[in-house]
Input
Amino acid sequence: MIGWQAMPKTIPRLDVMVAYSCNISCRGCISLSDFTRNGVARLNDITEWMEHWSTMLQPETIALFGGEPCLHPELIEICKQVRKAWPTATIRLITNGYLLKNFDSATWFDFEPFEMQVSMHRADHRIIIDQAIKNILLKRKGWQIRVSEDPQDHCQISWQLGDFKIYKSIFKDFVIPFRSEDDKILPWMSSPAEAHAICGSPSTPILYKGRLYKCPAVANVMDITGKNWFDYKPCSDAAQLDEFVAGIGVPESVCGQCPSRSQAVVVDHLNTINVVVKQKSLG
Output
């Protein structure tokens, strides 16, 4: 049929890398925030990427990812562009919470359905993060509160009001997604199935500089090193999309970049020695 176009493929989640820099440096970060990462993605580029992929993909959740998204000077406009590209998707802002103070707390309610994932990275800064969340909660009444005692549940406490949700995540243990040798980033060349079995992002594709990657760790390591040890081909267009979507949540050779359980170097992200917060974030 002339003019026929395939329906967009539904996937549970798509991360969008909007900022490369971060206001904290976490050893073991899948975005390599403990390396020199500067800048943010340009708004025009982000808009173009989303317009392109919105005709082919229908994610149930669009997660704004970094670095730290709140460093982006046009973050609110990015949210508007996400809503334009995917009118029914849930927008999820993944933030460490320190810079929420720079935004009007009422603004976030304009983007429902909306989720804010506030990730705790320092146990001694709990009061700072709790205050940032409280500022938003005070804008509305009638929140439903859920508390989880499951240590494997990344949503330890959540507040929900209709289609708006805030939850605090305490990840604690991070597995470094590469091995180091003489200050070089190198792949583990591990068993892909074994690495995938302990992966923290086993089903989380990311839109990174216009292309779709298996996960944030693969995109960031390939970008910062300029290396492609596994001849991995990120998805660039509709011709590759079926294969890419079929591979979500499935081990692939590129998963060998990360370690297996026996190789893993685990970093405690609640230990102050592993997380450095830039002072301007604490004022």
In short: The chain has a mean pLDDT of 93. The radius of gyration is 19 Å. The first helix runs from residue 43 to 54.
